[in-house]
Amino acid sequence: MLWNKWIQFYFHLPIIVRLLLSVCLIMTSFGFIIHILEPIHFPTTFDGIWWAFVTGSTVGYGDYVPLSNIGKIIGIILILAGGGLVTFYMATLSAGTIKHEKSLTEGKISFKGSGHIILIGWNERTKQLIRMMKDKQMKTDIVLIDHSLNKLSYRNNMIHFIHGQPTSDEILSKANIEKAHYIVITADPSLSEDEADRQTILNIIAARGNNPSVHIISEILTEIQQKNALRAGTNAIIRSNDFMSSLIYQALFQKDIQVTDIIAKTLEEQQFCINPIDNNMINQSFYHCTRQFLEDGKSLIGIVREDEIILHPPFSFITDKADQFIFLKAIK
């Protein structure tokens, strides 16, 4: 009964592990046999095992050789049996490595890490985001989920690719969504704006259903769907159309200045932050708070009061204990 369980356990192991165990067992057996047959030339069992591995792998150092006829017959059997098994093991190992890398490139391998960022959708925005994270040498793992890509090289992009629909529980499970810290959902450029927003909302629902605590950032193109995205469970909304319209408006009246370059440079080098007001700044003027922030190397640009964003209020503006500060700080 116990023997049958061991056999079942053995055949449930991966083929690479089974082959390695078989090689070790055969080499150990031949090493023990040659030690018993020729104890003078093979003083210890380890010497016999060393000879078996060297002979079976066809290396043949010649430091240990059998001298008796029976010992030579054992050597012939080892070369025929063990040599073929070692070669088969190495070929299988190489084929398995190539197959794993191919499956990784095609997005078929599950991600096993935690604390990672999941990006949904492969487009220029996600490409730029990945480049920025690499430039800032962020150590966070990135997992990409996309159905339009057939393959994505891990070596060139250093991100884990999962091929499939982001609304599928199976695909989200492959991305290990339960242990993810952030999810970024971008609009599908192949769809119309209304269709892209509906797809984004479905992606939010699927992600929130699989991880109630993950922080979701989603791109919404139309104003009408922003409330629906919040209802679906997103934590933050990126309104890309509004942002681009503002850039175009600024460029209309600043012909000699590359507004987009200035904003891009600002966003690359500095980070927007929102923090609750410090106790020592309650009931103080905005001017006083601005000076305090400058001394800390930060730029205070506004206040959030009762969900209203107040940018650059008058210096005489008095803060309240329920306020939140909006400021810029350098990205390290």
TrEMBL record:
- Any single GO CC term annotated in Swiss-Prot or TrEMBL for this entry: plasma membrane
Q: Does the record's keyword annotation contain Transport? A: yes
Q: Chief localization class?
A: membrane
Q: Where is the RCK N-terminal domain?
A: 114-245
**Compartments it resides in:** Cell membrane
Q: Which SUPFAM superfamilies match?
A: NAD(P)-binding Rossmann-fold domains, Voltage-gated potassium channels
For the biological process aspect of GO, one term held by this record is: monoatomic ion transmembrane transport
Q: Which domain of life is it from?
A: Bacteria
- Could you tell me what this protein is called? Potassium channel protein
- Identify the species of origin: Gracilibacillus dipsosauri
